[in-house]
Amino acid sequence: MSDQRKEERIPVSLRVTYLNRGELKRDLVTDLSPGGLFVRTETPLAVGTVVDLEVFVTDEDLPMHVRGKVVWLKQPPGPLHGMGVQFTGVMGPVLMELVEAAKKG
Fold it and tell me: Could you list the residue range(s) of the whole structural domain that residue 80 is in?
């Protein structure tokens, strides 16, 4: 797969929760950009699925709600399974700013 990202992404390790076929999933966001994020998961949603994510920037704060759409999947073979989510709401860039501020502070 060619890298089609327009924005720089940063490596992160953020807890995330979301619904997958009615089941609450707890997974990990491993990279983030102003336009989207990657969720490491063994059971990704289908491409085109709209998903509401609750991302925990720090362990002390409440999660931040972001909405996105699954735009690509990373499946076996390979070490990391998961899904690329493109932000569709306005909170994606705000999440990026919060994460960068938390890393500095």
Answer: 10-99
In this prediction the pTM is: 0.88
Q: What are phi and psi of 51, to 5 degrees?
A: -135, 140
- H-helix or E-strand containing 93? helix 91-104
Domain assignment present for 3 = no
Query: The domain spanning residue 61 has which CATH number?
Result: 2.40.10.220
Query: Residue with structure tokens 């953020």?
Result: 14
pLDDT tens digits, 20-72: 989 999 999 999 999 999 999 999 999 999 999 999 998 888 899 999 999 99
Residue of 95, 105, 40 lying closest to 62 (CA atoms): 95
Q: Do the beta carbons of residue 60 and residue 49 sit within 8 Å?
A: no
